[in-house]
Amino acid sequence: MTRQDYIFTSESVSEGHPDKVCDRISDSILDAFLAEEPEARVACETFATTNRVVIGGEVGLSDQKKLAQYMERVPDIVRAAIKDIGYEQEKFHHATVEITNLLHEQSAHIAQGVNASENKDEGAGDQGIMFGYATNETPDLMPAPIQYSHAILRRLAEVRKSGQEPTLGPDAKSQLSVIYRGGKPVGVSSIVLSTQHLDENQTSDDIRKIVEPYILEILPQGWVTPETVWHVNPTGKFVIGGPDGDAGLTGRKIIVDTYGGAAPHGGGAFSGKDPTKVDRSAAYAARYLAKNVVAAGLADRCTIQLSYAIGVARPLSIYADTHGTGNADPAAIERAIDKVMNLTPRGIRTHLGLNRPIYARTSAYGHFGRKPEDDGGFSWEKTDLAEALAKAV
Question: pTM to 2 decimals?
Answer without folding.
Answer: 0.95
